[in-house]
Amino acid sequence: MSKLGNLGARLHRGEISYDFIGHRKLWYSISILITITAIVGLAVRGLNMGIDFQGGAVFTTEKTSVSVSQAEEYAKNASGHDAVVQKLGNGTLRIQIAGMDTQQSDEIKSELAKDFKVDSESIAADLVGPSWGDQIANKAWQGLAIFMVLVVIYLAIAFEWRMAIAALVALIHDITITVGIYALVGFEVTPGTVIGLLTILGYSLYDTVVVFDSLKEQTKDLTKQTRFTYSEIANRSINGTLVRSINTTVVALLPVAGLLFIGGGFLGAGTLNDISLSLFVGLAAGAYSSIFIATPLVADLKEREPQIKALRKRVLAKRAQAASDEDHPVARRLDDDSEDAAPAVVGPRDQGAPRSRRRPSGKRR
């Protein structure tokens, strides 16, 4: 742990660094590949929309010893459709069947009561209309659009428009990957999923703004010096906040991983998967995009400015001159000696008049 802390301190002070900006084409390629995979998965498999979005019936049984797989078979035989069955913490079962109306719901409820060998009144049935799910989806899209617009406006005012564009690209990158993972895994999309998606946007933006704030501080009066280019300052900003980003991401991922893998996977609490998967994938994607996408994209946009281009030329020219001086040390030393040498003395030296030695009495010897 002490070595890790020492490594973080050296990264923050700029004593060591990794060239994130120099390898930005590699990061872009990886992100494009992942994004294309997510889009293909979304187009081919589609999202497994929950009953809240497509409508249907929800049946809740009393505490029972019937397994989830057996309940799924009962529900499929009774309705003729695939059902989503979740075992709740108190031992009851929650059975969701999409596309059911009131009459079908009553018939299925009676069939399930016979299969479970219980009274039909002990099974609670709730109908969810598709219009309610449409309203949720529309409100979620509206909230997302408003959020994006406000983010761009704020970042353009607080920082600059290039950083606003880079942050927006990073947010779209995170949303696309998260939604694509949902399509590939086949997890059900519920209102909890929407909440998780909106939550990760704030986290991703926070991690990006941390790097941008460091970059803004280090690039003040940048064109007045000739030691570093803008890309090199951007790389120092990433390295300076890298340990902080890793620490906050790991701390945030640990409890979410507990909900997803232990609660949803090991303990079988399927309701936790709705929000935990979106949080887990989104947090990881947000940390990645703030380091490998947002800041390198800002550097690419800034390097197109005439002032930054001129700065880069001056920096490279100065380094080329320094390298040339190192290759010819004798000539450089002669030049230094000729410049630093004291001016020669021209003409006779004034040594002063000779002193005559006299006796105390004032007579000469």
TrEMBL record:
The keyword Transport applies. GO terms for biological process: intracellular protein transmembrane transport; protein targeting; protein transport by the Sec complex. The keyword Transmembrane helix applies. Gene3D superfamilies: Multidrug efflux transporter AcrB transmembrane domain. Keywords: Cell membrane, Membrane, Protein transport, Translocation, Transmembrane, Transmembrane helix, Transport. SUPFAM superfamilies: Multidrug efflux transporter AcrB transmembrane domain. GO terms for molecular function: protein-transporting ATPase activity. Residues 325-335 have a biased composition (Basic and acidic residues). Residues 111-303 form the Protein export membrane protein SecD/SecF C-terminal domain. It comes from the Bacteria. This is Protein-export membrane protein SecF. It comes from Streptomyces phaeofaciens.
